[in-house]
Amino acid sequence: MVRGRRQSQRRKKLIILRGLPGVGKTTRAKNLCDEYARLGLEAEIFSTDRYHESTNYTKGNFQRNHQQNREDVFKALNRGVDLIIVDNTNISLWEMWPYIHMGMRQGEYYITMMELPKGYPQNYISINKLYSCCRHKIPKRKFRSFEARWEDAYNIWHVLNDSYSINRWEQCEEEWNVQ
Length: 179
Fold this sequence. Notes:
This protein has 9 helices and 4 strands, in the order H-E-H-E-H-H-E-H-E-H-H-H-H. By secondary structure, the chain is α/β, with parallel strands linked by helices. It comes from Salvelinus namaycush.
C-alpha cells in the first residue's frame, strides 16, 4: 500500500537546461511544457533571453536581466509551479548554483540538469552550425568564449559543493539567498 501511495504522488521538477546558443534548449523547454500541459500540470520556462530581447546587451543590463530571471524562478518555486525550466546557457557551475540552491531550500523539487546535446562536449556541434541555428544576434567570437568556459557538471551536488560558486554567491543579498 505504501508503494502505491508513493507512485501516485507527483514530485515537482526543476530542470536546468545547459548548452551553447542554437543547440535547441528553448525548443526542448517548450516540448517539456507541452507534455506537462497535456497532463493538466503547470509548467513555466524562465529564460534570461526574455529580458535581453527587451533591453540592449550592455553589461549592466545583462547582469540585471539575470537577476530578474533568478527572482522570477524564486517566485515560481514559492508558488509551487509543477515544472520549472531554466533555459539559459548555464555554461559555468556558478551560473547554475543559485537555481539549484533555491530548489534545494524550497525542498519539494526534484532537480536535474539537462545538457544539450546530451554528452556535450564529447557530442560536439560546430560553432558554424550553432551560429546558423541561433535565433539571437550573438557574434561568432562569443560562441568560442562560451565553448572555452564550459565546465562539466556531473550532478547537482557537484554544483552545490563548488567552492568558487559558494564564494561567489554567499554574500549575495538577492531575495532568494536571504536567510
